[in-house]
């Protein structure tokens, strides 16, 4: 059930076919670098404390922190799914993160933001003062997932939200 | 006879081993210190109060998460689910012995989830009660 669509394949197809303003800017190689959680488990206890400890020398490792911190509650959406202005807006308001408190230590949030901004996709014509916040609202996403498909998946696969990529895709 | 002596000496050896580190108890001890500082009449944590905290529908935090059970389900022994669809390991210590053993994680998730559910940070008394309840589950 969960290997219905290979996510990286779908992404590469969308990158090749879709020329929407928010089309995935990354290559297949970049997509494959996206975090690929092996399970759905949001393990809140099983791992040693990572917060503030994932470091390269004196610098916090933003990519490693992104993978551990952002996948606690949801699929760690690849950085190139959103423009830099979107990541900056999201990381600056983690205390109200789509209706939940997802606050992080400021140093950790800053390191994660640095990683995401560096690897973001920035299409021309983006309104940086009003950046998109929801991946499920992006034009390429909506083209890939029609209203009919959304309804079908929610009915037949117990998918609560289309933001749960791993309900249907494999990483 | 020799066998008996061996068993006996083995038992004695084990009993002589110093108490194992108990990070969960360390966390509870620290919370007890904070609870005492906040209330001179503090007399220990309560699993019953912890259960009430777990089940109360507060309605004072974020609308999507009125209570702990919103994500952790009615039984702490169940696997929960985040609003984004990810599984949450059970909170009950009996089925998830690593719960409440990492001070950084405990601090992080109480901070986040108390704000999401209640709309404020939890007190040391509430945290200690909650952990104490989960230790009975």
Relevant terms:
heterodimer; A: 171 residues; mainly alpha; two-stranded parallel sheet; globular; B: 137 residues; Cytochrome Bc1 Complex, Chain D, domain 2; two-stranded antiparallel ribbon; 6 helices; 3% strand
| Mean pLDDT across every amino acid position of chain B | 91
Radius of gyration of chain A: 16 Å
State the helical fraction of chain B: 40-55%
- Class from helix and strand fractions of chain A: mainly alpha
Helix content of chain A: 25-40%
What percentage of the residues of chain A does DSSP assign to strands (E)? 5-15%
**How far is the first residue's CA from the last residue's CA of chain B?**
43 Å
The percentage of residues in β strands of chain B lies in: under 5%
Please give a structural write-up.
The complex is a heterodimer of chains A (171) and B (137). Chain A is mainly alpha-helical and 171 residues long. Chain A has one domain (5-28, 51-170). Helix content of chain A is 37%, strand content 6%. Chain A contains 7 helices and 5 strands; from the N terminus they run βααβββαααααβ. The longest helix of chain A is centred in the middle third of the chain and has 13 residues, at 106-118. The two termini of chain A are 13 Å apart. Chain B has 137 residues and is mainly alpha-helical. Chain B has one domain (22-135): Cytochrome Bc1 Complex, Chain D, domain 2, CATH 1.10.760.10. Chain B has helices at residues 2-16, 23-38, 47-55, 69-72, 103-117, 124-135; strands at 80-81, 87-88. Chain B is globular and about 45 Å long. Chain A binds chain B through residues 39-46, 48-49, 51-52, 71-75, 95-96, 98-103, 159-161, 163-164, 166-167, and chain B through 62-65, 82-89, 96, 98-105, 108-109, 111-113, 115-116.
């Amino acid at each position: 059930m969960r290997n219905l669509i290979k996510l990286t394949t779908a992404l590469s197809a969308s990158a090749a076919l879709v020329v929407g303003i928010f089309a995935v800017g990354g290559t297949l190689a970049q997509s494959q670098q996206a975090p690929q959680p092996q399970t759905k488990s949001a393990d809140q206890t099983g791992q040693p404390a990572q917060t503030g400890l994932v470091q390269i020398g004196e610098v916090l490792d933003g990519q490693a922190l992104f993978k551990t911190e952002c996948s606690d509650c949801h699929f760690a959406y690849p950085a190139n799914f959103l423009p830099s202005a979107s990541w900056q807006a999201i990381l600056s308001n983690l205390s109200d993160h789509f209706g939940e408190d997802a606050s992080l230590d400021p140093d950790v949030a800053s390191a994660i933001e640095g990683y995401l901004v560096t690897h973001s996709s920035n299409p021309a014509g983006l309104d940086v003062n009003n950046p998109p916040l929801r991946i499920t609202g992006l034009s390429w996403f909506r083209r890939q997932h029609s209203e009919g498909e959304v309804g079908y998946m929610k009915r037949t696969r117990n998918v609560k939200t289309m933001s749960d990529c791993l309900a249907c895709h494999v990483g | 006879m020799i066998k008996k002596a061996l068993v006996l000496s083995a038992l004695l050896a084990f009993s002589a081993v110093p108490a194992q580190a108990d990070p969960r108890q360390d966390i509870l001890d620290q919370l007890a210190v904070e609870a005492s500082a906040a209330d001179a009449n503090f007399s220990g944590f309560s699993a019953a109060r912890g259960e009430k905290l777990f089940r109360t529908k507060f309605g004072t935090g974020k609308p999507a998460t009125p209570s702990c059970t919103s994500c952790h389900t009615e039984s702490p022994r169940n696997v929960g689910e985040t609003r984004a669809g990810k599984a949450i390991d059970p909170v009950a210590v009996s089925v998830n012995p690593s719960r409440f053993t990492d001070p950084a994680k405990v601090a992080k998730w109480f901070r986040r989830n108390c704000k999401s559910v209640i709309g404020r940070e939890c007190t040391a008394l509430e945290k200690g009660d909650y952990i104490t309840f989960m230790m009975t589950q």
